[in-house]
């Protein structure tokens, strides 16, 4: 499980799951890699969207796409229901 290390004072920094150490773990074990999209990022997107500064749905989808592109097989997120409804 990989957890994003972003905070409000330090923007999100997604660690690529194909860096040397994760690659060693992935090659030694046949297990899926799960990444957790933290509640702070969810709250920041919701607040910015509520103020009309961003398109919340578009930003949420972009963030989750970035997590998947970084190498996650599974993404745990507070956006799950909203994204599922939007993609249905």
Tell me what the structure shows:
This protein has 88 residues and is mainly alpha-helical. It has one domain (1-6, 32-88). Helix content is 49%, strand content 9%. The protein is built from four helices and three strands, in the order βαβααβα. The protein has helices spanning 20-28, 39-50, 56-69, 80-87, and strands at residues 2-3, 34-36, 74-76. The protein has a three-stranded parallel sheet with strand order 1-2-3, with helices on one face. Helix 1 (20-28) links the parallel strand 1 and strand 2 (34-36). The mean pLDDT is 78.
Output the keywords.
elongated, 88 residues, mainly alpha, three-stranded parallel sheet, 9% strand, 49% helix
Helix vs. strand class: mainly alpha
**Beta-strand percent range:** 5-15%
Strand order of the largest sheet: 1-2-3
CA(first)-CA(last) distance: 27 Å
Largest sheet: 3 strands, parallel
* Alpha plus pi helix count: 4
Q: What's the rounded overall pLDDT mean?
A: 78
Envelope shape: elongated
Number of strands: 3
In terms of quaternary structure, the protein is single chain
Provide the fold topology.
Elements: E1 2-3, H1 20-28, E2 34-36, H2 39-50, H3 56-69, E3 74-76, H4 80-87
Parallel strand pairs: 1-2, 2-3
Short description:
This protein has a 3-stranded parallel beta sheet, covered by helices on one side.
